[in-house]
Amino acid sequence: MWSVDEHLADVLAAVRPLEPIELQLLDAQGCVLVEDVTVPVALPPFDNSSMDGYAVRTADVQGASEEFPAVLTVIGDVAAGSGELPTVGPGQAARIMTGAPLPPGAEAVVPVEWTDGGTGGGAAAGMAPASAAPEGAGGEVRVHRPAGARAHVRARGSDVQAGDLALAAGTLLGPSQIALLAAIGRATVRVRPRPRVVVLSTGSELVQPGEALTAGAIYDSNSFALAAAARDAGAIAYRVGAVADDAETLKAAIEDQLVRADLLVTTGGVSVGAYDVVKEALSSIGTGPDEPDAGRVDFRKLAMQPGKPQGFGTVGPDHTPLLALPGNPVSSYVSFELFVRPAIRALMGLQDVSRPSVRAVLKADEALGSPAGRRQFLRGAYDADSGTVSPVGGTGSHLIAALAHADALMVVPEDTTSVEPGTELDVIPLG
User: Fold this and answer.
1) For 341-378, how does the pLDDT look when each residue is reduced to its tens digit (9 = 90+)?
2) Could you tell me if 91 and 42 are in contact, meaning their C-beta atoms sit under 8 angstroms apart?
3) Residue 206's beta-bridge partner residues?
4) Quick one: how far is CA 239 from the chain centroid?
5) What does the alpha-carbon distance between residue 170 and residue 192 come to, in Å, rounded to a whole number?
6) DSSP state for residue 417 in the 8-state scheme
């Protein structure tokens, strides 16, 4: 039997990161940068106001109070996006809006709440809209508090300076990274695209959700679970409806999907039953006279529970990687987490392809048993605050309900047959 680590190493050795492409920013979300991105212009590109208020000279408001306000002449408005700016001289102020450039002569901004807003009354709650009260850009304003130099002013380059490294190659682009790229003026970016993953489930007993169950039939949950897991891993997932237990039908289905697949995942049909047709179908792909070099898929037994039967190889003229997973729902999902998710992350060009594990103390009413020579993966509920993990459900590979309520996998090593409550063990959080 192969070990879990040997099988994973074999998978990753055959998976190569996808070729880079240039994408528009929103299309690049979820992709990985392949080049360093530097800042072409400082952010912000000019000194600007962090408040709605008045741009003033600090000497003019020194010692200002509600009893003895500083009375300044308002010379105009400075709105965000303003081009020509008024110069603020002695005894003057300009109404200024958040994000607007600090006009020449001004040294600070006093919030409108520190003034009478030009009304001649008490403290203002805000400014009247410029369209409704254009006279607000003139007249006088009374300032009730002093302001120090640079008060409420965002300095040019206080976010990033021109020439700084904005994002390094290998960065996974999420919303905040997309925002930074847009802020520095990048319309496109060079990335590795999100892998296209095709999921096929096999079994004549499978019925699609929403259809009526017939005698001996069950609903197809695996293809939905694995397609969702592929999306969660960062892929573009395509789910193919259940394929009957017929080798030629499955072979044709796989060959049809090669045109849109960077990775193929099958579930079911990899054990030793008379109707486990995945082996039969995959062994004949690429064996014809017109397909001299179309890869091969090996089937093997792993020293793990659940998920002992596994298949891996490449198919088609482009040697598309294919992972054949067991059909039991828990076996299928655990196998995805251990082998398919890392393959997807490797295709994306990420360095850390597997979920990180943590150490946690087993919280249980009794010891957990584990078969000798097998690495067991048990469903658990992990409490990060207390550093404990509790079993969820039994060990059966068919227990979907228990899987739905678990948020971690507890890992029992091959040489351990019993884990007592209070024992520390490795845990893989799934969140």
Assistant:
1) 999 999 999 999 999 999 999 999 999 999 999 999 99
2) no
3) 218
4) 21
5) 9
6) S
Radius of gyration of the chain (CA): 32
Q: Give the 3-state secondary structure of 74-102.
A: EEEEECCCCCCCCCCCCCEEEEECCCCEC
| b (16+ CB within 10 A) / e for 56-92 | bbbebbeebeeeebbebebbbbbeeebeebbebeeeb
The whole-angstrom separation of Cα 277 and Cα 269 is 5
What is the spatial distance between Cα 198 and Cα 257, in angstroms, rounded to a whole number?
Answer: 7
For 176, the token pair is 């905040």
DSSP 253: H
Q: What pLDDT score was predicted for residue 285?
A: 64
| Beta strand spans in 335-419 (E) | 358-362, 368-369, 375-383, 388-391, 408-412, 418-419
Q: What angle do CA 290, 195, 174 make, to 5 degrees?
A: 170
Three-state SS at 226: helix
The answer to whether the beta carbons of residues 180 and 25 sit under 8 Å apart is no
**Residue 198: strand, helix, or coil:** strand
What's the whole-number mean pLDDT along residues 312-316?
92
Strands 37-38 vs 48-49: parallel, antiparallel or unpaired: unpaired
C-alpha to C-alpha distance for 98 and 80, rounded to whole angstroms: 7
Q: What is the rounded distance in angstroms from the CA atom of residue 245 to the CA atom of residue 182?
A: 50
- Determine the Cα angle at 136 with ends 133 and 142, to 5°: 145
Q: Which residues pair with 56 in a beta bridge?
A: 93, 108
Which single residue is written with the structure tokens 């409420």? 152
Is the model's pLDDT at 294 over the cut of 70? no
Encoded tokens for 24: 């528009």
Distance CA 48, CA 46 (A): 6
Six-digit token string for 220: 């197809």
Q: Which two tokens stand for residue 26?
A: 């929103």
Q: Which two three-digit tokens encode residue 202?
A: 């096999």
Residue 380 CA from chain centroid, whole number = 23
Whether the Cβ atoms of residue 202 and residue 250 lie closer than 8 Å to each other: yes
Cβ atoms < 10 Å from Cβ of 176: 8
Tokens of 365: 């009413």
CA distance 306 to 338: 11
Helices 222-233/341-348 angle, 10° precision: 30
Does 105 score more than 70 pLDDT? yes
